Amino acid sequence: MFGAVGLLFVGLIGYGVYWAFFDMNRLPTGDYLAEETSPDGNYTLKAYVADGGATTSYTIRGELVFNQKRKKAKNVYWNSKEDNADIKWIDSDTVVISGHSLDVPNDKFDFRNQ
Asked: Cβ contacts of residue 67 below 8 Å, gap of 6+?
């Protein structure tokens, strides 16, 4: 009995830490910086710069917008110590953001997980 309760407690604590510190859906919005649309028009990557305040550096958040489908936009890029985003589409499903290549819509880059 204690083993199951203990395991549930550890699982809840682990999820809480992930939710509070690593969930890309909880990133700050930031200020609009730039955007580029994929060659086939299916995606738009919008970049935002977030100022963490006096004690932290600027960060860039990249949001993938689905132009052809009714899907919610999702965060796919989060990098610290950047205040500008260089966005280039290589093909319809590959975007390079400041040197980091992502195969959309599934790849993500998060500096906290590197």
From this structure: 37, 41, 42, 43, 44
What is the pLDDT at residue 113? 82
Rounded CA separation 7/65 (Å): 38
DSSP structural state of residue 23: -
DSSP per-residue letters across 32-81 = EEEEEE-TTSSEEEEEEEEE--TTS-EEEEEEEEESSS----EEEEEEES
Q: How many residues are listed for the chain in this entry?
A: 114
How many helices (H) and strands (E) the chain has is answered by: 1, 8
Summarised one tens digit per residue, pLDDT across range 14-48 is: 555 555 555 556 566 788 999 999 999 999 999 99
Taking Cα atoms as reference points, which of 36, 22, 83, 26 lies closest to residue 56? 83
pTM across the whole model: 0.75
